[in-house]
Every structure is written in structure tokens, then in C-alpha cells.
Amino acid sequence: MAGENLVTGSDGTNDSRLLIRVSGFEIDISGSQREVDAKMLKISEGEQWSTAIAKVRSAREAAIAAAVEAAKKSGLPDRGTAFHALITNSSLTKKPDQVLAAIQYLRDVEGIADSPPRVLKDLFSDAGLEPPENLSLYLNRLLEREFIGYPPGTPEKNRFAILTPEGRAHLDRRSGA
């Protein structure tokens, strides 16, 4: 993906340009900043944009899956190092966001579907991070905000929590993904 640049036109005016390439899909907009913003707003409301974002998410998930597989084969990194890297690289500084990331990590990376509070706290400890003091409070607030839910067929207990689409979107926004 390419980003936004300020370009100087042949007439000496400063124009903006936005170039995005995703898996055969390209957006190339140039003009004044106002024109670029207006065109991008219109594009972001359309189906093409949704398709492009879905491709980015799919590529990201494939990259995570490949990294997980490579880590499993090599035996590295250990869970604490991997989770700490996730938190650090995603710039997740707030404890509720870290708890949300821990649930995602346990489910998506380690494949753990039953993660009682003890398992979540152990993950924080393994990563050298301060475990949340009142984990139930964080989980209840994440549930209230509809960032976590329960898969069909499981008891509605925090140990079976999964991220909802809203929870994933929240983590994406927080991590700059």
C-alpha cells in the first residue's frame, strides 16, 4: 500500500495525492487536499473500498497464520515473547485493549477456546506485563461495549469469550492496522 504525498504541480501549486494498491485494486487520487478528501470519502462509502479492506484483512490474517506456523515449526518465540511483541508492536497501552488482545492471541494464535482468568493472567505474566488487577471488571466492560461475545453452544462465561467484529475493528483502530 502506498500513502499520501504532497506533490508540486508544474504550475507551482501544491497538490495532494493518494495512491493505494491492494491485490490488483488501485486508488489513485490527486488534486487539492479538499478534492482528494472528498473523492476518498466517496470511495470509502462504496463497495470497492469494502472489497479492498477485506483483501487487506485477509492478507493480514494469512500473514499471521504463516507466522504462527513458522513459529510452531521453529519452536520460537515462546508465548510470553510473542504476546509481548504483539502488545508492543500494536502500541496497546491501555489495559482493556491488552485484555482484548490477550483473548485474540489465545484464540487465534494458540488455538485455546477455554481461557479462564488464570490463563489470561498467566499470559500477561509470561510476557513480563502487569496482569490486570480486576480481570472480571475488564471483561464485563468489554462485553457491555460488545467487543467480546460467546460462541454459540458455549456457556456465557468469560472463559469462553471471543472477539466480536466490533472488538476486532476496535483493536484494528487502536493498533493502526
- With strands numbered from the N-terminus, the spatial order across the biggest sheet is 1-2-3
Please give the number of β-strands.
5
Q: Which residues sit in consecutive blocks of at least 5 with pLDDT less than 50?
A: 1-12
Strand composition percent: 5-15%
* CATH topology group of the largest domain: Arc Repressor Mutant, subunit A
What does this structure look like?
By secondary structure, this protein is of the alpha+beta class. The protein folds into two domains: 4-61, no CATH class; 77-175, Arc Repressor Mutant, subunit A. Helices cover 55% and strands 14% of the residues. It is built from seven helices and five strands. It has helices at residues 33-44, 47-74, 79-89, 95-109, 117-126, 135-144, 165-175, and strands at residues 4-8, 14-22, 25-31, 148-149, 162-163. α4 (95-109) crosses α6 (135-144). The chain is elongated, with a radius of gyration of 20 Å.
Compile the SSE list and pairings.
Elements: E1 4-8, E2 14-22, E3 25-31, H1 33-44, H2 47-74, H3 79-89, H4 95-109, H5 117-126, H6 135-144, E4 148-149, E5 162-163, H7 165-175
Antiparallel strand pairs: 1-2, 2-3, 4-5
Helix pairs in contact: 3-5, 4-6
Key terms:
177 residues; alpha+beta; Arc Repressor Mutant, subunit A; 2 domains; three-stranded antiparallel sheet; elongated; disordered N terminus
Quick structural summary:
By secondary structure, this protein is α+β, with helices and mostly antiparallel strands. It is 55% helix and 14% strand. A hairpin with a 5-residue loop joins strand 1 and strand 2.
